[in-house]
Amino acid sequence: SSHFGSSLGSSSSRELAVSASSSLPLCPAMAEKLKEMIGSADCVFFDNSSCPYCRMAEDALTAKGIAFKKVPIADYKPALAELTGKTSAPSVWIKGTYVGGCNDGTEPWHGVKPMLASGKFEEMMKA
């Protein structure tokens, strides 16, 4: 019976670990849904309709004539947090690569506006 007790202990500690990381998606289906969405267009723009940075990034892309697929960010935040460490909007992706938000991201070259200014955005769209 001591063996039974120890296996019970390990399973309950595993449950604790899962609940402690509840801010991450526990469901692989959500991560899969995010990957499918990211792959569904050359440029995917996870949007929050009340976010001024989303409007600035959207306007900048539209001004350059760049087509993008706009997706409400709310459903994807936990999966985005796991992939990028960020849940901020917009979350912009080019051909499956995260390129940040309006002005910055997780890399020095990230951000819609700086990338449009440097030509990197169009370069990645054509690649």
Q: What's the end-to-end separation, in Å?
A: 62 Å
Mean pLDDT: 85
Give the neighbour order of strands across the main sheet.
2-1-3-4
Low-confidence stretches: 1-25
Helix-residue proportion: 40-55%
Structural class: alpha+beta
Task: Describe how the helices and strands are arranged.
Elements: H1 2-20, H2 28-38, E1 43-47, H3 52-63, E2 69-72, H4 77-84, E3 91-94, E4 97-98, H5 112-118, H6 120-126
Parallel strand pairs: 1-2
Antiparallel strand pairs: 1-3, 3-4
What would you note in describing this structure?
With 127 residues, the protein is an alpha+beta fold. It contains six helices and four strands; from the N terminus they run H-H-E-H-E-H-E-E-H-H. Strands 2-1-3-4 form a four-stranded mixed sheet, with helices on one face. It is globular.
List keywords for this structure.
four-stranded mixed sheet; disordered N terminus; globular; 127 residues; 6 helices; alpha+beta
Could you give a quick summary of the protein structure above?
This protein is of the alpha+beta class and 127 residues long. It has helices at residues 2-20, 28-38, 52-63, 77-84, 112-118, 120-126; strands spanning 43-47, 69-72, 91-94, 97-98. The protein has 6 helices and 4 strands; from the N terminus they run ααβαβαββαα.
